[in-house]
Amino acid sequence: MDALLLQILNGLDKGSAYALIALGLTLIFGTLGVVNFAHGALFMIGAFCAVTFTKLLTLSHKVVDETRKDFLGNPMEVDVPYIYDWFGQSTGDAMIDWAVPLSILFAVPVMILIGFVMERGLIKHFYKRPHADQILVTFGLAIVMAEIIKYFYGANPIPTPAPAAFAGSFDFGAMLGFDANTIIYPYWRLIYFAFAAIVIGIVFAFLQFTTFGMVVRAGMADRETVGLLGIDIDKRFTIMFGIAAAVAGLAGVMYAPINSPNYNMGMDFLVLSFVVVVVGGMGSLPGAVLAGFLLGILESFASMAFVLDAIPGLNQIIIYLVAIIILLTRPRGLMGRKGVMED
């Protein structure tokens, strides 16, 4: 039972990332009809927003410290972050420690701006082009974005620690009545799952209960009729592209302490997340979220030692096997809509 619970927790952790990225992919496809293969790169850029914000907070200048002497007895020069000058040392240390959560404030406007530029500068020219053209151009854009990040940040992963308050692990076993230290799980992974649930809830509530969201949903169902009512649906869809980019970026920001950001991490998640979208059903937001968590849990169970002993490498292909089975039995995916990508 303890191994079962641990694998479910691992699955929810992976599924949270899959669901967030797949949600953004589905938002873009459902509104604009564009298959965006650059979405994984947006996830990667979000992670580097956390890296950048952390570096900004730690920018420093030299100050002579009279209390510290070198071997000749002269006062030493020490690096003092600028943030100490502005907020004091205790507040500055707290802000540096909480750099990853605080970088959300930095990442949201940056990701929305990137989304607007992508949509207005490139994507809009491919609305009426075949999906194959959309895949090629957005995949090429993803490669360009990855190489830009590699140029400025290097090829090596950059450790981005979580706040010290969440650096430890939570003893699930003791809480559930098992022996102590039976089920230990990192706090930050639990935070990530809770964060993903909140973001997903906000997106669904925004689409379901706001006038803007209702117009967008109507435009997804019948774009021409909404346009005939005098509503600038294209402007709203551009905003939705920015929101989708922000969702992917937030997923990357909070994932940075789990997997040290590197220029290739977007590609690692892109293919898996696209499979999640297809399994859930192209254009179905609930399907994307459901498939994300389902496939995350299945991948976690396939990574167990006794499973790998029986079928080596199963954890690497389980998602694709499940996708094949589901698409053979339900060609539109779990919750796909009739007519989506069937022309």
TrEMBL record:
Ranges that cross the membrane: 15-35, 42-61, 98-123, 135-154, 160-178, 190-216, 236-257, 269-298, 304-328
CDD domains: TM_PBP1_LivH_like
UniProt superkingdom: Bacteria
A GO BP annotation: amino acid transport
Pfam family, one: BPD_transp_2
Keyword set, alphabetical order: Amino-acid transport, Cell membrane, Membrane, Transmembrane, Transmembrane helix, Transport
A single cellular component GO annotation: plasma membrane
Cross-referenced InterPro entries: ABC_transp_permease (IPR001851), BCAA_transport_permease (IPR052157)
Principal cellular location given in the protein's record: membrane
Membrane topology: Multi-pass membrane protein
Localization per Swiss-Prot or TrEMBL: Cell membrane
GO MF term list: transmembrane transporter activity
Family: Belongs to the binding-protein-dependent transport system permease family. LivHM subfamily.
Name of this chain's protein: Amino acid/amide ABC transporter membrane protein 1 (HAAT family)
